[in-house]
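Our preliminary data section would be incomplete without showing what the modeling component actually yields. Below, a chain of 286 amino acids is followed by its predicted structure, encoded as C-alpha cells that our downstream tools consume directly.
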Amino acid sequence: MVTQIPASTSAPRGLLDRALAFAAAGTPVFPCVVGGKAPLTTNGFHDASTDLDQVRRWWTATPLANIATPTGAPGFDVLDVDVRPDGAGWAAYYRAEAAGLTDGWTRMIHTPSGGLHLYFPGTEQRNGSLRGQHVDFRSTGGYVLLPPSLGQTKQYSRRYELLRTRPGPGRPVDWAAMTALLDPPAERPRPVRSGWARDGVDPMPALAAHVAKQPEGNRDNALFWAACRAAEAEAADFEPLLAAAVSAGLTEREAARTVLSALRTTAQTPRPHRAAAAPSTASLTR
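Predicted structure:
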C-alpha cells in the first residue's frame, strides 16, 4: 500500500497533531531532535510506527520533536535538491527535468535550506548522493523530515513546507539514469579499437549520420543502436547523437531517454572482443 501525506498549507499546528495525522493516513513516523535530523528512538527509522498510541507517547514526551518517516517502498522515494553555502542543486535539477527524469513526482516540499524535496512512488533502490551536484536521493534505508518540521543551522531556522501536490499515483524516479546524466564516469584513456574506432577514427560522425537519415518508425531504434556502439567505443560526448535524433524528428526528451537507456544497457553487458557491424535498418531492434 502506498502511504499518503496529508495536505496542509496552513500555519503549523501542534507537532503531535501533525504526527497523528500522518500516522492515521498510513505514513509511519518517528521523532527526531528538535530542529534537527537525529532520531530520538533507539533504532532510528526502524522504530517508525502508525500506532496512534505510540505516536502520542513520543510527542507527549517531546512536544517539539521533528517528524520523520522512512523512505522507499511501500511509501515514497525523495529527491533532495539542496542549497548550501558552497553551491546549490538547481542546475542539476533543471538538467534532470529537461531529460524527463523528474516527471513522476507527486509532492513538492520547500526545505529549510531553500531547496526542494520531490516525492515519488517508493522503490527498493539504494540511497545516493551527487555531492558535487548538491542532489541526494533517499529510498530504501533512508528517511526524511516531514512538514512542518523545523530545520535549524547557523544560517537559517525555517520549517519544511508543502508547496504543491499532483493527482495520481506518479512514477518512480530512475536514480541510476539520473546519476548517468548528472555524474557520468570520468573519462578514461581510450584504447584504439577495431571496427568503428579502427585506427583511432572517431565513430561519432558516422553514427550521427546514420541516426539523422532514419525514417519515422525506426528513429528510436537507430538511436539506441548508435548510442550502444558509441558507448562501447567509450565516446565522451553524446551531443552529436542527440542532435541527429532531434533533426530526424525525435523530441529532446525522447532522445535523452533513449541514450540513457543505451548507456545503462552497455554498462551491464560485457564488452565484445570484436566490434559489431552496423545492422541493416530493418533489423535494428532493442
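The CA atoms of residues 73 and 123 lie 5 Å apart. The chain is about 30% helix and 15% strand. Preliminary results of this kind motivate Aim 1 of the renewal.
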